[in-house]
Amino acid sequence: MKKILQKTGRFLVDTVEVYIPFTAFTVLFLVFILGITFRYFLKPLTWTLELSLICFIWTSLLGGIYAKRDDSHVMFTMIYDSVSPVAQLWMRIVGNTLLISSFLIGLVPSWKYIAFMNYKKSNVLKIPMDLVFLPFVIFLAFMIGRLSIDLFNDLKKLKSGEQHTS
Question: Which of 11, 12, 70, 82 is 20 to 30 A from residue 2's alpha carbon, by CA?
Fold first, then answer.
């Protein structure tokens, strides 16, 4: 049973972090090309811009979660790299604590605003705006989870006296 739950959980996380952003980017690219083709060779389409923007929101926010998953975000580490492993550990603890706090503060108001937006629909495709902006709440929740795991691991290292970087 535990193995089934792990596989299901991994599939759900992969769906949010990999499959949905991949699909959104593919749709974005195809619709973008279609819009350009129609604009220059036929009659311009109004819905392509709207769908491209919605797909961009979904791609960038959910793709950002994946970037955190494999730590591939752009980082400026000149100061971080020049300090001792203990100082690096403390910098990660403080940084992750600040990020978790910020994301927690923004989670409920963001959820309330997105829920409020369910009355509004996009202009052309009539897609509910709460669905358009839902990835932001998903982004916050997943980032809180991933950052909390990193923070927990760093606190374990601090407690155990490990001084190497992750």
Answer: 70
pTM above threshold 0.85: no
Could you say which DSSP state residue 71 is in?
Answer: T
**At residue 86, what is the residue type?**
V
141 pLDDT band, cuts 50/70/90, is very high
pLDDT tens per residue, range 24-67: 999 999 999 999 999 888 888 889 999 999 999 999 999 989 88
DSSP code at position 119: G
Amino acid at 129: M
Instruction: Assess whether pLDDT exceeds 70 at residue 165.
Output: no
- Report the distance separating Cα 91 and Cα 78, nearest Å: 13
Mean pLDDT of the chain: 89
Residue with tokens 């730590």: 71
- Do the Cβ atoms of 139 and 61 come closer than 8 Å? yes
Which strand (E) or helix (H) includes residue 166?
none
Q: Domain ranges in the chain?
A: 1-74, 75-166
Q: For residues 90 and 29, what is the distance between their CA atoms, to the nearest angstrom?
A: 42
Report yes or no: 142 and 16 within 8 Å, Cβ to Cβ: yes
Phi (first) and psi of residue 128, to 5 degrees: -60, 135
